[in-house]
Design brief:
Layout lengths: L8 E5 L4 H12 L3 E5 L3 H13 L3 E4 L8 H15 L4 E4 L14 H32 L4 E6 L14 H22 L3 E8 L5 H5 L23 H12 L10 E4 L11
Parallel strand pairs: 1-2, 1-4, 2-3, 4-5, 5-6, 6-7
Helix pairs in contact: 1-2, 1-7, 3-4, 4-5
């Protein structure tokens, strides 16, 4: 039986944990060869072992600082030399800090811009030439999937997150512009925008015992928070030929949270 991503080579950033780890497992299950990058070497190896335990193929190398353009270029050059041009880029890596507009320190603002916008742009920029070559060699082209958020399309009266909202809105705008720039090369670019997903990161901030967001699932139409694998399955769809006529889209993966009024 042919799987949706058979024969594809997928670059995944942030593959050591959370959404990136879930994507590595999902994409590998769909038949892709995974090339993972993360600053967390031990976590990346753990993901590789998980992928291989279920019969998938994943390769990791030295830790990659995704904010170091030279390091990202070296990772992609090495990966391409060993495995060929990538067919897919899933840019999952990101770290945030929260704070209200009148309280957020400029150091935190700069941190979020770097760790949620630059950390996406740099891998896209460095992989673009390889994705163009891959798209030229394959009738169905190549695919980029970025990770936005409900924060990029809706404000929150509970979570003070101005920098995070700006960066995630930027990711959604980046998706649309890259879709325009990639169309002529047969590169499709789409975005998944999760609501609150239970990951080690969110359990430490948004879902911490003292967080007002901990009970936000009461306002989600499906009455629960999401799981990383639910986001990964949507990303795999957008990366596959089943989404061959989809580009520039922002797929909300939030249990209907962004579609309704509070209490609705």
């Amino acid at each position: 039986m042919t799987r949706r991503l058979d024969g594809r080579i997928a670059l995944i950033t942030g593959s050591a944990s959370g959404l990136g780890r879930a994507a590595a497992l999902q994409f590998a299950d769909e038949g892709a060869v995974i090339l993972g990058a993360d600053i967390d070497a031990a976590g990346n190896v753990a993901t590789q072992e998980s992928v291989r335990r279920v019969g998938g193929s994943m390769h990791v190398g030295d830790p990659v600082d995704l904010l170091d353009e030279d390091g990202v270029r070296a990772w992609i050059t090495s990966a391409t030399a060993r495995h060929g041009d990538p067919d897919i880029l899933y840019a999952s890596a990101g770290v945030t800090r929260f704070g209200a507009v009148d309280e957020v320190p400029m150091d935190d603002w700069d941190f979020v811009m770097r760790h949620e916008l630059d950390i996406v742009f740099i891998p896209v920029k460095q992989a673009w030439a390889s994705l163009r070559r891959s798209a030229a060699a394959r009738a169905s082209g190549s695919a980029v999937v970025l990770v936005g958020s409900t924060a990029g399309v809706r404000g929150s009266m509970t979570n003070r997150r101005v920098a995070h909202a700006v960066t995630k809105g930027g990711i959604i705008a980046m998706t649309m512009q890259l879709a325009a720039e990639g169309a002529g090369y047969n590169i499709r670019v789409n975005c998944v925008s999760p609501g609150i997903i239970r990951t080690p990161a969110t359990e430490g901030d948004l879902l911490a015992p003292d967080s007002p967001m901990r009970t936000a699932d009461e306002s989600v139409p499906l009455r629960r928070f999401g799981r990383p694998d639910e986001v990964a399955r949507c990303a795999a769809f957008l990366a596959s030929d089943e989404a061959s006529y989809v580009t520039g889209a922002n797929l909300m993966v939030d249990g209907g949270w962004s579609a309704v009024l509070p209490g609705g």
